[in-house]
Specification:
Number of strands: 9
Organism: Triticum urartu (Red wild einkorn)
Mean pLDDT: 80
InterPro entries: Metacaspase, Pept_C14_caspase, Znf_LSD1
Strand content: 15-25%
Protein name: Metacaspase-1
Family: Belongs to the peptidase C14B family.
Shape: elongated
Distance between the termini: 53 Å
Strand order of the largest sheet: 8-7-9
Pfam families: Peptidase_C14 (PF00656), zf-LSD1 (PF06943)
Helix content: 10-25%
Low-confidence stretches: none
Number of helices: 2
């Protein structure tokens, strides 16, 4: 069930998804915080006749109705003086999150890392562009598309092209 709130910046009516603590306005970019609903009371435990605390986890994320696809890049710049630690681990963690929490099928995720043995799954400029093409190919409203990148953010000229 959606709740209507007014943007704190431009006063535009926004639809707040159930359970969301805040929402960003697509018009002015302001973030509107919403007061959290009161916490549920304790849950009765008939076996002990006592009150047990309510579970601490929230509701599962809303189900997406469309197709799910993801491209995940982890680039550590191995064997260079700019080598990064943890980028490939970040990519693996993102894959785990998408498959376990958000139920992305394994075959709907392309992983591009320097660990890959398949030359088409190494994160080169060409392979990243091809993976992005695959990600967007045939997308429809309601699809869930994810692009995750872990690595340096600077661009350098390649003299090999």
């Amino acid at each position: 069930m959606m709740m209507l709130v007014n943007c704190s910046g431009c006063r535009t009516a926004l639809q707040l998804p159930h359970g969301a603590p805040c929402i960003r306005c697509s018009i002015c970019g302001a973030v509107t915080n919403v007061a959290a609903p009161p916490a549920p009371g304790p849950v009765a435990d008939p076996a002990r006749g006592a009150q047990a605390p309510a579970p601490a986890w929230g509701p599962p994320p809303p189900a997406a109705h469309g197709r799910k696809r993801a491209v995940i890049c982890g680039i550590s710049y191995r064997f260079s003086r700019h080598e990064l630690k943890g980028c490939i681990n970040d990519a693996k963690c993102m894959r785990h999150l998408l498959t376990t929490r958000f139920r992305f099928p394994d075959d709907s995720i392309i992983m591009l890392t320097e660990e890959q043995t398949d030359p088409y799954k190494i994160p080169t400029k060409h392979n990243i562009r091809m993976a992005m093409y695959w990600l967007l190919q045939g997308c429809q409203p309601g699809d869930s598309l994810v692009f995750h990148y872990s690595g340096h953010g600077a661009q350098q000229r390649s003299y090999r092209e």
